[in-house]
Amino acid sequence: MRYLPLTQIDRDAMLGVIGVATIDDLFVDVPEAARLDGPIHGLPMHASEMAVERHMSALSRKNLTAGDAPFFLGCGAYKHHVPASVDHLIQRGEFLTAYTPYQPEIAQGTLQMLFEFQTQVARLLGTDVANASMYDGSTACWEAIGMARRITKRGKAILSSGLHPHYVSVAKTMAKFTGDALETSAPTLGADTDIDALIAAIDKDTSCVVVQYPDILGRIADLKPLADACHANKALLIAVVTEPVALGAIKAPGEMDADIVVGEGQSLGVGLQFGGPYVGLFGCKEKYVRQMPGRLCGETLDADGRRGFVLTLSTREQHIRREKATSNICTNSGLCALAFSIHMTLLGEAGLRQLAAINHAGAVAAAERLSQVPGVELVTTSFFNEFTLKLPVEARPIVRTLADRGILAGVSLGRLYPGEDALANGLVVAVTETTTAEDVETLAAALQEVLA
Amino acid sequence: MSRYFTEDHEWVDVDGDIGTVGISEYAQSQLGDIVFVDVPEEGKELTKGDEAAVVESVKAASDVYSPVSGTVIEGNPALADTPGLVNEEPESDGWFFKLTLSDPDELSGLMDEIAYAAFVEKL
Amino acid sequence: MSINASGWRPEAPISGGKASPTTTGNKALMLEEALIFEIGDTTTTGVDLVEPVAATSRLGDLARTASIGLPGLSEPETVRHYTRLSRQNYGIDLGFFPLGSCTMKHNPRLNEKMARLPGFADIHPLAPVQTVQGALEVIQQLAHWLVTLTGMDSVAMSPKAGAHGELCGVLAIRAALEARGEGHRKIILVPESAHGTNPATAAFAGYSVEDIPATADGRVDTEKLIARLGPDVAGVMITNPNTCGLFERDMRVISDAVHAAGGLVYCDGANFNAIVGRVRPGDLGIDAMHINLHKTFSTPHGGGGPGSGPVVFSKALSPFAPLPFVEKTDDGFHLVEEETAGEHHAGAFGRMVAFHGQMGMFTRALTYILSHGADGLRQVSEDAVLNANYILRSLDTTLDAPFGGSGPCMHEALFSDENLADGFSTIDVAKGLIDEGFHPMTMYFPLVVHGAMLIEPTETESKAALDQFIVALRSVAERAKAGDVSLKSAPHFAPRSRLDETLAARKPILVWKDPGLAQAAE
């Protein structure tokens, strides 16, 4: 029991100071019937570090690691190279084992980092302000819908068909309980986004339009006309970015007048981790800041006039507002925000732009190569690092067959939209700086073989 | 013009059918440094006891209830930039909003300055 | 383009401040650090990237042309920047961190090592399930432990943190009530000592919250709670052990009464560390409880997340657990998502997050649980409770312990500011402790105790560490009782003195703005 410093001599001495005979005397308030008399049966006893490591390593080896295969999965989580110094720095005990910075005098490290993170995120998204992060992109998206309801005092949100279906699912789950009305639909397997349809759907009851950029099929389109249409009806435009690296190449939603921009920050610093923990990005126009959920760090001065940082505007939060809080959220995703921020600092604007250019060029080359496979058609015409192919057959069995051959070919739309026959042949392929030309060639050859 | 107080520490000055509402000196002293005030918009219909405004200090947020029923004619624009006015001049320049009273009879249920002073004394 | 227009560099003495004894503003190992926006540059990068392959742009007319304003640093500068920042933080690795209700226990590094195994860290959430069988098995093994330790029926793994878990539990309660045609139950009873997330969660789930008062011995007023039950009450949210650090002796009685009245019982499991291995919440009639993996099961707090908040359910609520979850069949582990939920899980109330939850926390928590085993986890709660009572009894003659007379505490000791000098409060004691090299206790929570000081030592502190803390707190408390004014300006030796929160909130500065540009705009 290597994590327990007390010795039996310590325990006996302490019981003496407390004035009780045995440890059981400290559990007297537990009703007799609920007291367990010894370790729970059927569970293993304590184990050495070596034994645990052996057990966990064996489990890890049952997975096909992304780095060990030609890998083309995206749809909300992307494989990027994370510099070694990122993981080293986030493991410094002063970051790793700190709590939420409620004692700012001894938490300036976390607070200054959060202030830098908020600024980086706001600049990346093109918004005036950003918060200190959310759980992930999907929860940030739902929180944005709730924020739009509070601002507009309207209860109908229009969700683009290009919004990640899991994000839609999360919003639907929550809306069942809050009473928000959501308009949703499945995407069509074509080159065009649904922006025109969204514009047509906005009316006087609309609180917001939620649009993903690039969307679930990888498509990109100018959001300005949509923002204008929203504002003409006093509705808000919420843009969702699941691939933040894209914003090193394409216009930020804030630049196109989106009111709230949320996103998934996993691409920078965080890694795939089978879906979590990730880091939700949340930015908005300055005028809405008091309706924003989540923690905020602000600049101030200490008693000696020195610059310092504190958590601020906390009266929006649950520990003060209780049932009137903007959200029930208590934590952010601090350590992932730190990883994001360090990676972004290492890249800088020049590096981010270069990284985005590599991703885009690689994706364009891969799209051209894969669309040469007989029967395969490139659906998306404008995209960043992710595009959709239409196969001559259902994509999902093909993905499974290729996985058996050690190739992680992409995300089949059949998995994301079960029961939508019109999408079943769609395959979403992501290409990043980690994808090599050989990987693309391997996929193309294998695809040709299994389709033949 | 006469001034009335509630047990929730709001005051209302009445001049004809126009009431001006704020929070008392005692209330501001309990709240500490006020950092934000959200006042109601013009035209908002309030019933006596409705949540009319929100006042926030660093560590607390409190609802301000309307002491009387009526229609809001103006929120104090100065509070947006200088919420500290509520600390400095709670019972004058730090007023929250003005409204047209719809039922002046409600005033009879409120305390006058002497009664309120006695009420605060006991807290 | 350089965006360093402020001219504020770490070597410049800090303007407007107290005169520094050094020219740099640094004091030996206490090093000042500027913002990346003041030391970085948009043309600098700390990574080496190849040239993009030749390809025709598919960006249409959406290319981002305007400057973004993101500064870069070289790798050595980056490492130094963040290392310097880290040194302005207090963490468990540095010293005693008795933050009540937060369970700041040691974070074992084996957890970190295991979470970083490529087979866990480098797998995609949408990878075909045949390629991630080991990951699903981790989820399933951890789920088995959580269900067994709590004596419950099932567990939802996906909630991202404690408050998210609370929401999951309350949504399941609402789904269950609606399924049996009792959607008219609209009230959730919450003790007034509850953590702020409880009422916030209930309100978010569409419920009205009614407070239940506490008794003089710091527990829920059982009689008042039972008297309030009725056909309009959906359920109760109770923290046990509660936020005063006490076990709710009547928990079983309360659960039975709530069930008899047609309601359901949510337990906030934030304080599970006090009873893990010794008491199973399932034996107390609980229907849903979240477990903070970042508290009881030692995953790092990370300066404010990420957390992880799996929720265990009773038989009554299991059918309503959210998607996704893992199932085992003869041919391996499966992920039950929207498409497969259909027949078997028609009651599932939906999806709470995009993917499967905090996998990185699952690997850490399972590593921790396997390290301790059933016997070790029992020892964990015993030592946690022993340490807390040792602190309670060592300090209850110095500070007022409002519930000290009612018997032992569980995992945390609660004091009030009752006998401090006039004008002195809990915050002064807390800031005095900072100067003594400790992280302060939780201040002003729970709200039911005036000037609450909530001290949770956890089981990973040695007796020597506790003894040193006791001596320090005794000394600081005596100073506060004697009215020592130097405490009012403490801390004196931290990287910063007390920060002006009023200034921060009145004129919020939430992002860095180039002072040069700001000046030009005026």
Automatic annotation (TrEMBL), chain A:
Gene3D superfamilies: Aspartate Aminotransferase, domain 1 (3.90.1150.10), Type I PLP-dependent aspartate aminotransferase-like (Major domain) (3.40.640.10)
Function: The glycine cleavage system catalyzes the degradation of glycine. The P protein binds the alpha-amino group of glycine through its pyridoxal phosphate cofactor; CO(2) is released and the remaining methylamine moiety is then transferred to the lipoamide cofactor of the H protein.
Organism of this sequence: Sphingomonas glacialis
Subunit structure: The glycine cleavage system is composed of four proteins: P, T, L and H. In this organism, the P 'protein' is a heterodimer of two subunits.
Cross-referenced SUPFAM superfamilies: PLP-dependent transferases
Top-level taxonomic group: Bacteria
CDD domains: GDC-P
NCBIfam families referenced in this protein's UniProt entry, alphabetically: PRK00451.1
Family: Belongs to the GcvP family. N-terminal subunit subfamily.
Presence of keyword Oxidoreductase: yes
Catalytic activity line of the entry: N(6)-[(R)-lipoyl]-L-lysyl-[glycine-cleavage complex H protein] + glycine + H(+) = N(6)-[(R)-S(8)-aminomethyldihydrolipoyl]-L-lysyl-[glycine-cleavage complex H protein] + CO2
Protein name stated in the entry: Probable glycine dehydrogenase (decarboxylating) subunit 1
Automatic annotation (TrEMBL), chain B:
Domain Lipoyl-binding, residue spans: 18-100
InterPro entries reported in the protein's UniProt record: 2-oxoA_DH_lipoyl-BS, Biotin_lipoyl, GCV_H, GCV_H/Fam206, GCV_H_sub, Single_hybrid_motif
CDD domains found in the cross-reference section: GCS_H
Coiled-coil ranges (or none): none
TM spans (from-to): none
Pfam families assigned: GCV_H
A biological process from GO: protein lipoylation
A single cellular component GO annotation: glycine cleavage complex
Biological role stated in the UniProt entry: The glycine cleavage system catalyzes the degradation of glycine. The H protein shuttles the methylamine group of glycine from the P protein to the T protein.
Record's subunit section: The glycine cleavage system is composed of four proteins: P, T, L and H.
Protein name: Glycine cleavage system H protein
Native source organism of the sequence: Sphingomonas glacialis
Highest classification ranks of the organism: Bacteria, Pseudomonadati, Pseudomonadota, Alphaproteobacteria, Sphingomonadales
TrEMBL record, chain C:
Official protein name in the record: glycine dehydrogenase (aminomethyl-transferring)
EC number: 1.4.4.2
Keyword terms of this UniProt record: Oxidoreductase, Pyridoxal phosphate
Species this protein is from: Sphingomonas glacialis
Aminotransferase class V domain span: 182-302
Catalyzed reactions per annotation: N(6)-[(R)-lipoyl]-L-lysyl-[glycine-cleavage complex H protein] + glycine + H(+) = N(6)-[(R)-S(8)-aminomethyldihydrolipoyl]-L-lysyl-[glycine-cleavage complex H protein] + CO2
Superkingdom of this protein's organism: Bacteria
Any one GO cellular component localisation term in the record: glycine cleavage complex
Function description: The glycine cleavage system catalyzes the degradation of glycine. The P protein binds the alpha-amino group of glycine through its pyridoxal phosphate cofactor; CO(2) is released and the remaining methylamine moiety is then transferred to the lipoamide cofactor of the H protein.
GO biological process: glycine decarboxylation via glycine cleavage system
Main enzyme class: oxidoreductase
Domain Glycine dehydrogenase C-terminal, first and last residues per copy: 381-481
Region of interest (Disordered), ranges: 1-23
InterPro entries listed in its UniProt record: Aminotrans_V_dom, GDC-P_C, GDC_P, PyrdxlP-dep_Trfase, PyrdxlP-dep_Trfase_major, PyrdxlP-dep_Trfase_small
A single GO molecular function term of this UniProt record: glycine binding
